[in-house]
Design brief:
Elements: E1 5-9, H1 14-26, E2 30-35, H2 45-55, H3 59-62, E3 63-67, H4 73-82, E4 86-89, H5 96-101, H6 104-124, E5 127-131, E6 140-145, E7 148-152, H7 165-184, E8 188-193, E9 195-197, H8 206-215, E10 220-223, E11 229-230, E12 232-234, H9 235-250, E13 257-260, E14 266-267, H10 268-279, E15 286-289, H11 304-307, H12 317-330
Parallel strand pairs: 1-2, 1-4, 2-3, 4-5, 5-8, 8-13, 9-12, 10-15
Antiparallel strand pairs: 6-7, 11-14
Helix pairs in contact: 1-2, 1-9, 4-6, 6-7, 8-10, 10-12
Length: 332
């Protein structure tokens, strides 16, 4: 029986390098990972995955890597010739500050790359999974009553309200996915995760940046007063969620959107303090800086739909942070 052919874009990024490793170890799918190896890619994993595939006796049947830019038309034609059964569009420029400085790469890579992959699905009949973000929605800030906080967690059908060029690029692709469903009849689903953290994340992100700076006793910049609300999901919990959604989709569950969240919301300054406590470093390392332009106040997702399938996060915030700190200390 022929292995199902999966086309994955961005499998060397933080999140999907973990997903890819899990799938290589647990399934017999033939996976073509296309990645242009940007500054945020974990290119050192190419050899790791090749060795893993060989150790599992899958060599060149379960794992292929191609250095390619899916936003290019010639690469699109090559991928159509590959004739995938399923496409996972996981590549993305994600750093909000970079999108504020120059939005053009975000439109080219995030929107242009996804559009080319949607065309691959259109011409080959492949199913399509798009990895979006909680930032595409118009979130309602929580109500705070002393130490009590009431969150307004957004459901999958909530209104769009992207607040920066990065999230606007992701919302644009969501609309393209809907248009391709309606116009061409492609089978597609969208996954909107909250912030995901774990080992291997690029150091431009808040948690790894805080760990790296604190280990060197360098100041840690926090925007404004750090009062923005964010939720953080451990990478291992996300991998489990993706595994479940992926196979629900294969089995015929055509839910258009899935939310994946930990529902452990906290303010940015408290996230930094938690890391400092885990490292036994003083809070005096925190340096408050001018706030980010258009800084969103809160992100908070309702993932009741996913939980109805039996999934829930297993890793407590405090435990996940301690483990991530330990991993970074071992690799300094």
């Amino acid at each position: 029986m022929r292995c199902m052919k999966v086309l994955l874009s961005g499998g060397l990024g933080f999140i999907f390098s973990h997903v890819l490793e899990y799938f290589l170890k647990n399934y017999d799918y033939s996976i073509l990972n296309v990645d242009r190896c940007s500054y945020a890619s974990r290119s050192e994993l190419i050899l790791v995955f090749e060795k893993l595939a060989k150790a599992l006796n899958r060599d060149y049947t379960g794992w292929f890597y191609e250095n390619g830019d899916v936003a290019r038309k010639d690469v699109r034609q090559e991928l159509i010739a590959y004739k995938p059964d399923l496409i996972i569009c996981a590549h993305s420029e994600t750093h909000v500050d970079n999108s504020i400085k120059d939005s053009a790469p975000f439109i080219r890579d995030n929107v242009g790359g996804a559009l080319n992959l949607l065309d691959v699905a259109r011409y080959t009949g492949a199913r399509f999974i798009y990895i979006s973000t909680d930032e595409v929605l118009a979130h309602t800030p929580p109500d705070v009553f002393g130490s009590a906080v009431k969150f307004y967690r957004m459901r999958e059908e909530a209104m769009f309200g992207p607040g920066n060029p990065y999230s606007a690029s992701k919302a644009s692709v969501e609309m393209l996915v809907q248009a391709y469903r309606n116009t061409y009849g492609i089978k597609a689903t969208i996954i909107r995760p909250t912030n995901v953290y774990g080992y291997g994340q690029n150091r431009e992100k808040l948690i790894p940046k805080t760990i790296a700076n604190a280990l060197q006793d360098k100041p840690i910049g926090v925007y404004g007063q750090g009062l923005q609300w964010r939720d953080y999901l451990n990478i291992n919990d996300f991998v489990r969620a993706f595994d479940l959604i992926f196979h629900e989709f294969l089995s015929g569950n055509m839910e258009p959107v899935w939310h994946v969240a930990a529902n452990q919301e906290r303010q940015n300054v408290d996230t930094v303090r938690a890391v400092l406590r885990a490292l036994d470093k003083p809070f005096s390392l925190i340096e408050y800086v001018d706030d980010r332009l258009g800084h969103d106040v809160a992100y908070s997702l309702d993932c009741t739909k996913l939980q109805s399938l039996g999934w829930k996060p297993r890793i407590r915030w405090e435990d996940g942070i301690k483990e991530m700190v330990r991993q970074y200390q071992e690799h300094v």
